[in-house]
Each structure stands twice: as C-alpha cells, then as structure tokens.
Design goal:
single chain, 182 residues, alpha/beta, four-stranded mixed beta sheet, globular, binds adenosine-5'-diphosphate, binds guanosine-5'-monophosphate
C-alpha cells in the first residue's frame, strides 16, 4: 500500500489530538511526525519521541541545507518538520503532522503530495464546550483560541478534505478512509 503524508489542522479544541492519537493507537502503519525545535526539553520529554531538540546553530544549518518541509518561529524558538524524518518514515508507514494552517500550507508548497485535512466542529457552541471541558486553558486563553478559529476556517477551501468531528468514532473512521483512499 502507498504511504501518505497527512497534515491535520483545525481550531484548538476541535479534537485533532484525540482523533490522531486514537487512530495511531489502532494502526501500526501510521505514525505521528516528530518535529525539531530549539526550545529546551520539558520534564519527561524524550529526544526523538516528542521532538528532536537542536541547538540554534544546528537548526539554522539545517534551514540552510533545506532540510525542513516547513518551519516557523514560536515564542522565540524555531520549530520545524524535518524532511529527512518524513522521507525515511514514508518508506514503511504513513505520517500524520498535526499542524496549523500556515505550517500545512507551507508543507504543501515543498511537498505537493501532502494531503491537507481540516477538522471542524459541529458548531461554535460545541467548540467552546470542548475547550472549556478540557480544562487546560484559562478563560482568556480560550478567547484567544476562539479568535484564531476564524482565521483557520477561512482557509478551508485550500484543504483537500474537511472532517466534521461530531461523533468521534465517525470522525476517526473518516480520517482512516482518507489515509487508505489516497
Ligand atoms: P485539539 O487537539 O484539536 O486542540 P483535543 O483533542 O485536545 O483538541 O480535544 C479537546 C476536548 O474535546 C478534549 O477534552 C476531548 O476529549 C474532547 N473531544 C474530542 N472529540 C470529541 C467529540 N467528537 N465529541 C465530544 N468531545 C470531544
Ligand atoms: P510547544 O513548545 O508547546 O511544544 O509548541 C509550541 C508551538 O509550536 C505549538 O503551537 C505547536 O503547534 C508549534 N509547533 C510544534 N511543532 C511544529 C512544527 O514542526 N512546525 C510548526 N510550524 N509549528 C510547530
């Protein structure tokens, strides 16, 4: 079977992480992409599993060598998807990147075979409920994430597939169908 590179985007709280992690736990032939970053590892984070932790010099050398499908700066650190990891893994497995709209569109430019999937909520009210229910953000952070939602959704037309995450099992099945159908 052909292995595919999938970029999964969508507003914060829509359920991307839950969908991707559940799918990966059920499929040995699908893995999540491991990004590179220049930020320091947090407690419990493992090099090569959560991220590849690089020095700024090493990251910049790899930018110059064109080794990133896409990269960006967040909070003063570089983050990027290494082409080398993706290429090597695609020989035996499909790869999912959970990535924002900017990163996904950049990845598609460098790697046109990349399939773009946007996950949308059944309604804005339900998205608010999920963000509040997750309990990991303050009220202010939730408002910031909701404000960003309009921007993410405004790029829907540039995506190859849209999945409505209403019933979680159905949304996971939709994602599997995309992987198997590509
Ligand atoms: P994201 O990775 O998109 O930010 P999460 O995967 O963290 O979102 O999901 C946000 C919250 O919504 C979590 O508490 C999760 O359990 C819940 N959730 C995910 N999918 C569904 C669904 N289909 N129905 C109800 N709750 C869901
Ligand atoms: P954190 O430091 O909390 O792990 O991640 C900070 C931010 O970096 C998050 O918004 C995350 O989505 C983003 N990020 C992580 N990996 C990548 C990547 O490979 N490329 C891009 N463009 N952003 C990333």
């Amino acid at each position: 079977m052909k292995h595919v590179l999938l970029a999964v985007s969508g507003p914060s709280g829509v359920g991307k992480g839950t969908m991707v992690k559940t799918l990966i736990s059920r499929r040995e032939d699908v893995v999540e992409s491991v990004s590179c970053t220049t930020r320091a590892p947090r407690e419990g984070e493992v090099h090569g599993k959560h991220y590849f932790f690089l020095s700024k010099e090493e990251f910049e050398r790899r930018i110059a060598e064109n080794d990133f499908l896409e990269y960006d700066e967040h909070f003063g650190n570089y983050y990027g998807t290494p082409k080398s990891f993706v290429r090597e893994t695609l020989k035996t497995k499909s790869v999912i990147m959970e990535i924002d709209v900017v990163g996904a569109l950049n990845a598609k430019k460098t790697f046109p075979e990349c399939v773009l999937v946007m996950v949308v909520p059944p309604s804005v009210e339900e998205l608010k409920r999920r963000l509040s229910g997750r309990g990991s953000e303050t009220e202010e952070q939730i408002l910031g994430r909701l404000a960003r939602m309009d921007y993410e959704l405004s790029h829907k037309d540039e995506y190859d597939h849209i999945i409505v995450n209403d019933d979680l099992e159905k949304a996971i099945a939709d994602l599997m169908k995309i992987i198997d159908g590509e």
